[in-house]
Amino acid sequence: MDEALWALGRGTGVIGLALFSLALVLGITVRSGRSAAGLPKFGVARLHRDVALLAMVFIGIHILSLFFDSYAQLQLVDLAVPFLAAYQPFWLGLGTLAADLTLAVVVTALLRHRIGARAFRAVHWATYLLWPLSVAHGIGAGTDAAEPWFLIVVGVCCAAVLGAVAWRVTARFRRPQPVTPARIKTAATRRLASSEVSS
């Protein structure tokens, strides 16, 4: 029974990390204001939400299966308070901290219309912290951390998220400036000056 729970915990943890990474990439895409993969912005936003909820399901199964597995030696308090676990307290603590932040993001998302968009966005920024915590937890506490397939999964997740962040940052700098009367006048003045110089 413990072996089955341990395998379930490991598998759902890896799937949860992959889905969470995809949700983060989709969230970055939504914030950019662009469409992706032929989907309009609202479609990307819906996909982001659905993938994030699916990731939560797998992460929830991951936590519960390891809680009932005697090998992990988790107590009820370990599910909420980080760095108290008997087994690998630091690495499991990072996972607990990530789970706490994830819960805060989900609760504020569900209460978005009551708490307001500003408070929702402020808490939602925590995803940029909880994602690296989740990756570090998987590498530090995962029994498959040295396996090539696991390293490939983590590498793909990291490349996708870092690529999305880089794409988002460069897109911001390439965003066209709004056309205003002052900009039109400045452009006309420059053209007139250059034509006078050339003549």
From TrEMBL:
InterPro entries: Fe3_Rdtase_TM_dom. It comes from the Bacteria. The keyword Transmembrane helix applies. Keywords: Membrane, Transmembrane, Transmembrane helix. The chain crosses the membrane at residues 12-30, 51-68, 88-111, 123-143, 149-167. Pfam families: Ferric_reduct (PF01794). It is found in: Membrane. It is a multi-pass membrane protein. The keyword Transport does not apply. One of its GO terms (cellular component) is membrane. Coiled coil: none annotated. Residues 12-133 form the Ferric oxidoreductase domain. This is Ferric reductase like protein. It comes from Microbacterium telephonicum.
